[in-house]
Amino acid sequence: MTRVEQIPRYGDEEFLDAWSTAWSCGDPDRLLPLMAPDALYRDDGSDLDFHGHDEIARFYRFMLRFAPDSAIRFTAAHGDADGFAARWTWSGTASGRLRLGDRVHETNGAAFSVEGVAWCGLTDDGLLASHVDYYDMRAVVQAVAVDPGA
């Protein structure tokens, strides 16, 4: 008998751990089942939007090129069946370039850690319809850029 893996939904006891693992495991295919096929991911710190699974997977790979050891830990969430806000910490070691708009920052190999909040909307069946991250990208740039002012 084939076992079908149950995808946790917001409100399930294991949701925050599963969501943290999905963002931190290095495989976008672990994240995408939590998101609606037409979901929006917005990285407000970088002023970038990604629509649908293909673009969200592209963002995920971009994040790993910047910091292959990226770890995102969700620590608390509050909301209802329509959506929720969640606190998180993103940490890692910068080993690739960091592109922000028209600027490309060479990185110094330093470790970084930044706290943020995700504002998420949900579909009727509990998948993430939208995920918008709010955080201080300037703090990341200051920690890892060879020339933060450039």
What would you note in describing this structure?
The chain has 150 residues and is α+β, with helices and mostly antiparallel strands. The protein has one domain (15-144): Nuclear Transport Factor 2, Chain: A (Roll). The protein is built from four helices and eight strands; from the N terminus they run H-H-E-E-H-E-E-E-E-E-E-H. The protein has a six-stranded mixed beta sheet. A two-stranded antiparallel ribbon has the order 5-6. Strand 3 and strand 4 form a beta hairpin. It is elongated. The mean pLDDT is 92.
Overall, the morphology is elongated
Proportion of residues in helical segments: 10-25%
Low-confidence runs of at least 5 consecutive residues? none
Please tell me the total number of domains: 1
Number of strands: 8
The residue-averaged pLDDT reads: 92
Query: Into which percentage range does the β-strand content fall?
Result: 35-45%
Q: What's the helix count?
A: 4
One letter per element, helices H and strands E, the order comes to HHEEHEEEEEEH
CATH class division? Alpha Beta
Named at the architecture level, the CATH assignment is Roll
Q: Strand sequence of the main sheet, in spatial order? A: 2-1-8-7-4-3
Q: What Rg do the Cα atoms give? A: 16 Å
N-C termini distance: 58 Å
Largest sheet: 6 strands, mixed
CATH-defined topology:
Nuclear Transport Factor 2, Chain: A
Structural class by helix and strand composition: alpha+beta
